[in-house]
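User: Fold this; tokens only.

Assistant: Input:
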Amino acid sequence: MSELFSRKLKMILILTILICFTSLFSVTAQQICANEVGTSGGYNYDFWTDYEGTTCMTLGPGGSFGAEWTDCGNFLARKGYKYDYTQTHAELGIITCNYSCNYNPIGNSYLCVYGWMRDPVAEYYIVDGWGTWRPPGADSAGSITVDGGTYDIYRTMRSTYPGINTPYTYWSVRTEKKTSGIISVTRHFNAWENMGWELGKIYEISFAVEGYQSSGNADVTSMSLNVDPPDRTPTPVIKGDVNDDGEADIVDALLVAQYYVGLGVRLDEDAADVNCDGGVDIIDALMIAQYYVGLITGFC
């Protein structure tokens, strides 16, 4: 049996396994229309609504999700990471968010990085996109130029949560709308601290769509939230090696397939995106399998 024929047989077997795997676990995207928290695609998700109008969140693979709302009161749909209030943002590390969204608000809405802190308690927004009203309707305390744009900085009072003393909401709001790209979260935290504002310990860092007394829809086609610990020595990304064991093999291909169908696997999305199209899907899993059996010699 020739080596090429043997490779082809291996590839057919691997393709069969991957196709059966994805067929077994692929399900209709989960739609949520009531308050709910959980995990999806390696992230925590949180859907909150005051139940006015019609509001729903649809969970996709990885960090992707969608939202649809009609005549809503207030809702938040988001995916990200939740922590235990024991670390400041500096102790967590360098935080960035990469995303792409088809965003179509009709009325008041935000497209943003969102979260909470404690000691002191605070809510925060880093707003890239909005609807008909640019938040937060206050005088700017300054600005920061980052990620190809300028953000105005605000600190507002917030006391609308029963039983929670929320003295401040921190804001960075882009001067021009954006619906895709990078948000250097740590740069905004640093800018707020440079204003003399005290930031607490992190509970949540999420990418969110919020609506208030409005309608619309949003399709977050991709979202990756990256937190690089401050004491970690940067290592080069090995394309295809999603489990960081030093090589790209069939285990990595199966992990990417699991990630694609939303089984809650966390992996290095830069390493998983072997065709460099900005997303992680079954094509990446198949390419890693091809590499493993020697049908291709490398990635992008």
